[in-house]
Amino acid sequence: MLKKLWFQVGIGILLAILIIRYFLEIKEIFSPIFIIGKTIFLPLLLGGVLYYMTEPIQRFLENKKFPRWASILTIFAGLIGVVWIFASIIGPPVTHQVNELVKNSPAITAEINEVTNYVLKQKHELPENLEESIDSAAASIQSIAVKFGKWIVQFIQSFLQAMFLLVLVPFFFIFMLKDHEKFAPFIYGFFTGKKQMWVKKTLSDIDNVLRSYIQGQLLISFLLAILLFIGYWAIGLKYALLLAIFGLFMNLIPFIGPWIAVAPAVVIAFVQDPTLVIWVGLITIVAQQIESNLITPNVMGKTLDIHPLTVITVILAAGNIAGFLGIIIAIPTYAVGKAIVKNIYEARREIQKTATKTV
Questions:
Q1: What is the signed CA dihedral for 82, 83, 86, 87, rounded to 10 degrees?
Q2: Interval 228-238: pLDDT, tens
Q3: The whole model's pTM is what?
């Protein structure tokens, strides 16, 4: 029984749980490590995203005989130029729409409360089995309306804090561009023989998974944001650019993200003109059909090969554990873990085949 895979996996899980438990009980000793880790995690994450976004450009430049330092300077100059262009073109309208939304948030809240109160007054004319559902929905809407303004303020505060942490991003980004080939050899250099080959292959698979996911998901989200902006602008929806940018970030979350992105657009449309809600719904459906049937198959294909039910389960669990950041990193983390487990399984199967041939 000791040689059975299920038994060894079970023992490994139990040991991991015990290690985590005792580690948490003495977490005061490691609190400085936690603080340092929390401080550098977001800049490291964003630096990694920028690296995977620009690594194809660096590879192209170096194939054209650019030295490493010249390729890095070119990429930085290009990024600064792109940021400057976007800030010049998009910055003023976004700032205006944010200020207008903050200023109008009390009116939006009041409008939602007024509609909710009207529905509650008319509920007695509806069938009795709908009254409880209306009460529950009304309570939820009122809670959202009360918190609407607070959410905007909290979002702006979190954004400013993130901007402060972004000072560290260029440092991680530069070192990734400069020394990224040295990371894998440094890791598998600790091993020899077949173990070294296994570690090397596993690191290569992890790199491919992260590259495919980050590059593909960012491109998909950007294209979806353009589609949403065109649709919202065409129907005259207020805050169209702001809602499209919000949709860009929310669409980084597979499956669930698009439905989160459409929620504020529906609220704004309902307050502005209830008939616009139908148009917002149609725009969302069209954009999602284009994304699922045209953009995603051509951009990402079946790179991750993860079932939609698994994606939803992983996202919900990560959200409960680590909040919004957990939702963002849930799928790539799961994909990395899946690549590691797949390589472990393949190595064990190869060992079993070798043992069978020997016998």
A1: -150
A2: 889 888 888 88
A3: 0.66
